[in-house]
Design brief:
Layout (H helix, E strand, L loop, with lengths): L1 H12 L24 E13 L2 E13 L5 E10 L2 E12 L2 E9 L4 E10 L2 E9 L2 E9 L5 E8 L3 E11 L2 E9 L6 E7 L12 H6 L7 E4 L2 E7 L5 E6 L4 E7 L1
Antiparallel strand pairs: 1-2, 1-16, 2-3, 3-4, 4-5, 5-6, 6-7, 7-8, 8-9, 9-10, 10-11, 11-12, 12-13, 13-14, 14-15, 15-16
Amino acid sequence: MKKSLLFLLTITLMTSCSNEDNTINDKDKLVIKHDGKLKSTKVIVNSSVVDEKLYSYIETTDFLYGTNGFVSETKTTRIDKYGESFAHTTFGYDGNYLINKTYLEPSYRNDVVEKFYYVDELITTSNYYSRGKSVREYYSYDSFKNLIKREIFHNEEEWEATFEFEYTNENVNKLILNTRHPIPTQILNYEYDNKHNPYNEAYSVAYRRIKYISKNNVVRVNDNEIQYEYNAKGYPIKSIDKNNDVITTYEYY
């Protein structure tokens, strides 16, 4: 279970870990145009450990965008030993502010709507109902608007997990995870390249903050190294996570 959790955190943080903005207006009042508009990703996982068993799959995700320039839909297809499954996520905006995210997974007949609540331009709370549980998340920031704590509760008062973040040069250099389960505290340390992270240019500022999406790409998580190939504009076209046997390819509009 510990190895499985660390793997999932590593995959998540390959698309995370900073709050540095490359926008003109921190409140997303302007439509931002980028050269690296992500069209699709393909992830090949050859040796993920889930419940102490090896698990492999191929997952392809397509990205669609709204008139504000941010992701409006993602469509995902996964092929594994159980067959083919699909997931569909839509993002609802009020102008350039993300106010809800609907996750549709026909394979499990699951329909989850996550709602986001703001104080000024920062998301401070989100909630959703999934598989018989209500889930509420709280987000805390420092004076530089960096996310420093994320707390997850089930059924209003049942504490599930706390994520704490430390920064260097506006990038997360450490994540500390504690959960209510009997798993030791997880501490993750990060290093980055100086290239463009395409996920940073796909989502609104406030959403990027709570998902700790970086400006650059994570090249090391603890002793785990991720290697990249880039196109001429400095965007990744391929990444290889050798420790977890994961290969990701990127396609752009």
